[in-house]
Amino acid sequence: MGNLVNKMMSVMGLGEEENVQDTDTPVYEPRVRTEETTTAKKGKVVNIHTTTQLKVVVLQPTSYNDSQDIADHLKSKKPVVVNLERLDKEDARKMVDFLSGAVYALDGSMQKVANGILLLAPYNVGIMGDFSSELKSNGIFDLD
User: Fold this and answer.
1) Considering only CA atoms, which of 58, 62, 70, 112 is closest in space to residue 87?
2) CA–CA separation, 111 vs 127, rounded Å?
């Protein structure tokens, strides 16, 4: 009971001062970490000075069945150059339809480089320039 009375008196300023801290000095209390605060603090560290080389896959499919292999390269974030010259027109049309759907689903991009040659890029690879307008203006290839 005496301890309670001493505390009350010190709070009211009537008793002895025990370890009174300066109010200008901030008091830091340890924070209890929970799973929520631990996961919120974790972030992915990315090294912007990477030495990883980007590899481009160059393919010349011989049948429509090769479409899935090309889409798998896109899924693994590799750009693909596809030469459709060995395919007949119907298989080439079906392959372009399939690959344009795959590119769209993977949020990538597709660019016609020349007659029968396509550049497919995943979302992490940007394509700069419009190859078809450059080729048309130079008159080297018939792209229509």
Assistant:
1) 62
2) 8
Q: Over the range 89-111, which residues count as b (16 or more CB within 10 Å of their CB) and which as e?
A: eebbeebbeebeebbeebebbbe
pLDDT tens digits, 63-78: 999 999 999 999 998 9
CB 91 within 8 A of CB 115: no
Tokens 């009211």 sit at which residue?
12
Is residue 99 within 8 Å of residue 91, measured between CB atoms?
Answer: no
Cα(6)–Cα(21) distance, integer angstroms: 18
Residue 132 near residue 140, CB atoms below 8 Å: no
Burial label for 83, CB within 10 Å (0-12, 13-18, 19+), is middle
User: Distance between CA 84 and CA 67 in Å, rounded?
Assistant: 11
Instruction: Give tens-digit pLDDT for 6-52.
Output: 777 777 666 555 555 555 666 666 666 555 544 555 566 666 666 66
